[in-house]
Amino acid sequence: MHVRERMRYSNKIAIKWMLSNGFDQIWLKRHVRRHDFHYTKNGNYIALDLWNLFDGICWYEGKTVYIQIKTNGWADDESINKWLADKALNTLVLVINVKRKPKKQGQGWMVLNRFYWKMKKNVRRKDIGSKQFTVKSKNPSIVVYNKLGDTNDTIDTVKIKTR
After folding, report:
1. How far apart are CA 53 and CA 57, in angstroms?
2. Is the pLDDT reported for residue 138 higher than 50?
3. In the predicted model, what is the mean pLDDT of the chain?
4. 3-126 in CATH: which number?
């Protein structure tokens, strides 16, 4: 499969997963010959992706989520953390890794996920994988529960269930 074909195919798989898990109004930036101009206080640059980092944007329960879709790999933590460093609290980034299943699991593709979000002093990352990921509300902070029910992170109100 050609690189562009594989990218389009993995994007379709990621979109199908997102739609079946409560994400809506998914917009992916087309990767075309012409690049976009980005204007900043520190100078301008040309990029293929949004801020040279994201493939698109979507909504999840009224919140904006920035999306990065990768095939057979993960996005660079450092670049996402750097981008989130000066963003508003609870800014969400979803990184989707679409990869082939191991041979012993049969043919097909797996959709793995990581969430990043901006907190007061740092950026948090939660690997979701195929586990259930639910966020329960406790004012004023929100506590994240993983499948086993232990609390370990805080985030604004979001409920995400993966298969």
Report:
1. 11
2. no
3. 75
4. 3.40.1350
The shares of helix, strand and coil residues in the chain, as percent rounded to the nearest 5, are: 20, 45, 40
Distance CA 118, CA 124 (A): 7
pLDDT in tens, 68-119: 998 888 888 899 999 998 888 888 999 999 888 788 877 778 888 888 988 8
Give the DSSP letter of residue 54.
B
Work out the angle at residue 75's Cα, subtended by the Cα atoms of residues 71 and 80, and round it to the nearest 5 degrees: 150
User: Tokens 């994988």 — which residue?
Assistant: 129
Give the Cα separation of 55 and 161 in Å (integer).
22
Tell me the C-alpha distance between 32 and 48, whole Å. Answer: 8
Residues contacting 102, CB < 8 A, separation 6+ = none
33 versus 93: the higher-pLDDT residue is: 93
Domains in the chain: boundaries: 3-126
Q: How far apart are CA 72 and CA 98, in angstroms?
A: 6
Cα separation, 144 vs 28, in Å, equals: 28
